[in-house]
Structures are given as C-alpha cells and as structure tokens.
Amino acid sequence: MSDLHLSHRLQAVADFVPNHARLADIGSDHAYLPIYLAQHHVIDYGVAGEVVKGPYQSSVAHVHQYGLDEIIKVRLADGLQAIKATDNINVVTIAGMGGTLIKNILSAGSNRLTGNERLVLEPNVGGYLVRQWLNEHQYQISHEVILTEDKHIYEIIVGDPALVPLHYSQLDLMFGPQLRHERNVAFVQKWQTELHKQQLVLTNLQKAQHVNIERLQQVQHQIELIQEVLQ
Ligand code: SAM
C-alpha cells in the first residue's frame, strides 16, 4: 500500500504525537491519523475509536488494507470508552469536532485517563471550552497552532500534565495563551471575522424594540476584548 498523505490540518495534529507513543485517536473516522503515524513508525501502538458504525467499518477496512492490524486496534465505542487500562495509552488525539463535543468526551470519559496523557485537540469551533477544560483539569497548554486550509481556519491545542498549578486568564482561554502573542495571519483573520460578526450582532441588538441590556453588554465586552488583542 502506498504512503498515506494527510491534510495540512491532520498533519499539524500528527506533528504533536511524540515518537514511541501509545495513541488513542477518538472519532477516528477513516483512521488516517493512526495509520499515517504507524506507517512512519511514530507510534508503537494505536487505538482508533469510533462511535458510528459506518466510519468504524471504514477504519477497520483501512487499517487492514495497510497491513496494520497488529499495531492499530479499531473499536466501536463512545468517546474515551474505546480506551482499556491495558492499552497504556499516553497520547490522546481528538480532531475535527466542535469544542463542546471534545469537552463532553473528555469529561464523560475522564475515568479512562490517568492524567499523565498528552492531549492533542483540534476543535473546529469553541476553542475556549477546550482550553477551559484543560485549565480545570491540571493541564498546561504546551503548544498551539492556528492555520488555514481550504479557506477554513483550524486551531490545534496541546495539553500536557501541568507540573505546577496554572491559572489561565480569560484572554488566554478565549484567544490562546500562545496564539494571542504570536498573532499570525490566520489568527488575525479569524478574529477580524469574529469582530465583524459581533459588530453586526451589536447593531441588531441596538435596533431592537426592547433592548436586551445584558446581552448588549456581553457583546460590547467581547468586541472590546477582540479589539484589545488585535491592536
Ligand atoms: N478525527 C478525524 C479528522 O479529524 O479528520 C475525523 C473527524 S470527523 C469530522 C468526526 C468523527 O468523530 C466522526 O466520524 C464521528 O462519528 C466521530 N464521533 C463523534 N462523536 C464521537 C464520540 N462520542 N465518540 C467517538 N467518535 C465520535
């Protein structure tokens, strides 16, 4: 079988999986990520977890086609229930989902985590919720990437167990503790678009017959925060 090529987004997730990792890729869909990592001898062992039967079957077929059944175990399971204690997983990837779903998967399955795993998370939206979960569960945000692919903007957030208690500010949680200082092109584009959206919301709220003061103040506050970070 020929070498698999990952999208720019999935490659950026793969780049944060260390050598000799024992990986659980949750919501694996086609299992491309663990297959790529096994082909490149990055992972020693992998679990591809999927909750939906169609993608699960596609993962099983792909892993078999690539001759990787010994290294990658495909499991039909909800979230982190795909992980068994005997897997000795030390890296979990959850990519291509909303921040709310990622947070719910982590919370519902926290009994499957030892707290020593690296978490490589790629929320399509709702990065705030993912960072908030990491902050509340003694993880430090060790790496962050924001990138554009096919006109979409993606964020990759890496959580590693925190050695000392950390408390991220609201600005850190909203914009990313590293991303907000780096402010690369994708970051500026994302927050300029968001600023524009919030300004439209504000205009509509101001035009309403019964002004919702609380919501209006919330939106004004969001706008101020975005303007502050973009300055
Ligand atoms: N991770 C791949 C990627 O980034 O390209 C696939 C992303 S795909 C958009 C999201 C996948 O997550 C779907 O295949 C969906 O069935 C799966 N999924 C959603 N909720 C899940 C859950 N609770 N447990 C396991 N898989 C889930």
UniProtKB/TrEMBL annotation:
Domain of life: Bacteria
InterPro entries in UniProt: SAM-dependent_MTases_sf, TrmK
Taxon lineage: Bacteria, Bacillati, Bacillota, Bacilli, Lactobacillales
Gene3D superfamilies registered for this protein in UniProt: 1.10.287.1890, Vaccinia Virus protein VP39 (3.40.50.150)
A single GO molecular function term of this UniProt record: tRNA (adenine(22)-N1)-methyltransferase activity
Name of the protein described by the UniProt record: tRNA (Adenine(22)-N(1))-methyltransferase TrmK
SUPFAM superfamilies from the UniProt entry: S-adenosyl-L-methionine-dependent methyltransferases
Pfam families, per the entry: TrmK
